[in-house]
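[step 3/7] inverse_fold.run input=structure_tokens len=271
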């Protein structure tokens, strides 16, 4: 059996004495795609920040290809090695890109930081990465503010891929984009996953994205995993009332907001 590229066991994190993530365990196979689903406050973004190392867990274990990432790395080399394994693409590409430097420099920065490449080699690799996400010389020469939202998200993806990560975390990475642009970015991500055999973790509340982009799903409610399994099974035959509430909350013919509100109150009483 192929070893999972990502293993998370019993992850916990509290803020001000209140648990934000409470015993989360997930796994992801090489080249796989996993959606971590929940509403605001469910703990999904805190989970993502712990996976990438932006938050330290209070308890639990995170490993990538069998290497423990639960403790803070010591020394610059260890920090860089860990950073190469998991990269993150954020919701707002404009805020995640340095507005003072060109797109070319944005993509070259991680290449300079992580690899001992010559200037010519860095530029060649930069051009490969930009071409991979559908951008060229014109886009490379401008500042991020000169690009559309979809183009900026492509730059963010190229920059994340520059370290050759094993896992790419996408934290609501398409939610700020128009629907047509969302579809283009999802098609791009699917092609990159096929070509590079990289594993994805989608952090999202968007069930339409989950249905089309993730083979497996985990549903979080108040920091706990309440349902998990193949996406088709989770969405077609949900077992937990919170998963059913998420599905029923999607506007459709016969949609009843009053009933959804009543179901939410009932869920809060029993959970």
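[step 3/7] decode complete -> sequence:
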């Amino acid at each position: 059996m192929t070893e999972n590229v990502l293993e998370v066991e019993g992850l916990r994190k509290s803020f001000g004495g209140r648990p934000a993530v409470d015993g989360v365990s997930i796994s992801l196979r090489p080249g796989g795609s996993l959606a971590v689903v929940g509403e605001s406050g469910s703990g999904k973004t805190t989970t993502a920040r712990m996976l990438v190392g932006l938050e330290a867990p209070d308890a639990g274990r995170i490993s990538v290809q069998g290497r423990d990432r639960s403790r803070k790395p010591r020394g610059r080399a260890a920090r860089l090695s860990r950073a190469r394994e998991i990269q993150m693409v954020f919701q707002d590409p404009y805020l995640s890109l340095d507005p003072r430097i060109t797109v070319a420099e944005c993509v070259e920065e991680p290449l300079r930081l992580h690899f001992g490449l010559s200037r010519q080699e860095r530029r060649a690799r930069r051009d490969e990465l930009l071409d991979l996400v559908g951008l060229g010389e014109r886009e490379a020469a401008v500042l991020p503010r000169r690009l559309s939202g979809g183009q900026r998200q492509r730059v963010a993806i190229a920059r994340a891929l520059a370290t050759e990560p094993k896992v790419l975390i996408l934290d609501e990475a398409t939610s700020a984009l128009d629907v047509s642009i969302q579809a283009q970015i999802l098609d791009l991500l699917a092609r990159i996953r096929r070509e590079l055999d990289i594993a994805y973790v989608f952090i999202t509340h968007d069930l339409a994205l989950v249905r089309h982009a993730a083979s497996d799903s985990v549903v979080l409610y108040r920091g706990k995993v309440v349902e998990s399994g193949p996406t088709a099974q989770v969405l077609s035959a949900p077992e937990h009332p919170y998963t059913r509430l998420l599905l029923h909350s999607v506007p459709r013919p016969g949609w009843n907001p009053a009933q959804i509100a009543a179901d939410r109150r009932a869920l809060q009483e029993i959970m």
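[step 4/7] annotate
The chain is about 45% helix and 25% strand.
Residues 6-239 form a domain with the Rossmann fold fold (CATH 3.40.50.300).
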